[in-house]
Design a protein that fits this description.
This protein is of the alpha+beta class. It has helices at residues 24-30, 51-59, 93-102, 107-112, 114-130, 137-142, 144-154, 161-172, 178-201, 207-214, 219-249, 252-260, 265-276, 308-311, 347-364, and strands at 34-38, 44-48, 63-64, 135-136, 283-287, 291-293, 296-298, 303-306, 369-370, 392-394. It has a single domain, classed as Cytochrome p450 (Orthogonal Bundle), CATH 1.10.630. A 5-stranded mixed beta sheet has the order 1-2-8-5-3, with helices on one face. The chain has a 3-stranded antiparallel beta sheet with strand order 4-10-9. The protein has a two-stranded antiparallel sheet with strand order 6-7.
Length: 395
């Protein structure tokens, strides 16, 4: 008789509160912090839940960012990184792309964008004020603002937003088939490819235009870079703006503190990033060789998920009560943007957009409130990037 194999529990997915990660993460942190589990793609792997271990995995070159994807991949599927999709590359290829793009997203350059971002915000708030309430904050404000900004930066016509927003949603869905996801990906790539060809003929003063003019990337690489920046540049920040708004409305004492002292906004943005952490299932890595981590042998080829949401609720490192939103906390070492060489390239832009959007929204609509009970807000449990599908508000 063969011994019965122990059952490997699935990675936790069920939230009991819309702003909190699954409750099991607290127990996992208290136990070992590194647990063998069935990951989101159905394959056995390892889940890392403590802040220091998440940082260690994301900074360790023995863990690669390529390999299988989170999502509905089937047994036996393989994933080949498209040209230019540098988020799934390792040095020296990753270094080549990162070097070219870092100068486009410096702190100084992003801060210089603040007046333009504030103008976009003001225009969207004007449109919202003219609309008859209630309105969907996602469609009227949270999604248009970062979409306008990333279109301006990349040189993508904002008139094309419905197409790329629709395809971005399908790319990040956990419920569509792999064929549908790939279809959506190819549709965005085709769209960017047409823009790249046009910019060869008529140069433009934007990120894609500058990259075309530099001649350092092939057209296929430019398409990969453009696709990645376009999707990431509006999806993540849009969901942070909408979810942050809902969270502040549900924490009126924190919103009151922010209104009483606008100088708290920088810290409040960092706290919202920590508390909400919208990359809900973590950063996927693959062991490139056998790695021993706290007594666990992680074999080469094994999948590892570093849970950013769990690390950002780690009682061992977060001052005060990490399960509570506190806009005065002042903790700047959160993991919302990841860690290591793959840390989010656009994090400074996201901060500028969140600060401008949240500050102006609550100034313009001091009586802003949900137009439906909180439990009726449709949450993005079915997406890799968490948030709300809609946020009905009134004032």
């Amino acid at each position: 008789m063969t011994a019965e194999q122990p059952t490997i529990k699935p990675q936790p997915r069920v939230r009991t509160c819309p702003f909190d990660p699954p409750e099991e993460y607290r127990t996992l942190r208290e136990q070992e912090g590194i647990t063998q589990m069935t990951l989101l793609d159905g394959q056995p792997g390892w889940l890392v839940t403590r802040h220091e271990d998440v940082r260690a995995v994301l900074a360790d070159p023995r863990f690669g960012s390529g390999g299988r994807r989170l999502g509905n991949t089937r047994d036996g599927d393989t994933y080949t990184t498209p040209p230019g999709f540098f988020i799934n590359m390792e040095p020296p290829e990753h270094t080549r792309f990162r070097r070219l793009l870092t100068k486009q997203f410096t702190v100084r350059r992003m801060r210089q964008l603040t007046p333009a971002v504030e103008q976009f915000v003001a225009e969207r708030l004007d449109a919202m004020a003219r609309a008859e309430s209630p309105v969907d904050l996602v469609q009227e404000f949270a999604l248009p603002v970062p979409s306008l900004v990333i279109c301006e930066l990349l040189g993508v016509p904002y008139a094309d937003r419905e197409e790329f927003q629709r395809n971005s949603t399908r790319m990040l869905s956990l419920t569509v088939s792999e064929e549908e996801r790939q279809e959506a990906h190819e549709a965005v790539r085709s769209h960017i490819h047409r823009l790249v060809r046009a910019k060869h003929v008529e140069p433009t003063d934007d990120i894609l235009g500058e990259l075309v003019e530099s001649g350092e990337l092939t057209d296929e690489e430019l398409v990969g870079v453009g696709t990645l920046l376009l999707v990431a540049g509006h999806e993540t920040t849009a969901n942070m703006i909408a979810l942050s708004t809902m969270c502040l409305l549900q924490n009126p004492e924190q919103l009151a503190a922010l209104r009483a002292d606008p100088t708290l906004m920088d810290g409040a943005v960092e706290e919202l990033l920590r508390y909400l952490t919208i990359v809900q299932y973590g950063a996927r890595r693959t062991a490139l060789e056998d790695v021993e981590l706290h007594g666990h042998l992680i074999k080469a080829g094994s999948g590892v998920v570093a849970s950013l949401t769990s690390g950002n609720r780690d009682e061992a490192v977060i001052p005060g009560d990490p399960e509570q939103l506190d806009v005065t906390r002042g903790f700047g070492s959160h993991l919302a943007f990841g860690h290591g060489i793959h840390q989010c390239l656009g994090q400074q832009l996201a901060r500028v957009e969140m600060k401008a959007a949240l500050g102006a929204l609550f100034d313009r609509f001091p009586t802003l409130r949900l137009a439906v009970p909180p439990e009726d807000v449709p949450m993005r449990h079915d997406m890799i990037v968490y948030g709300v599908h809609e946020l009905p508000v009134t004032w």
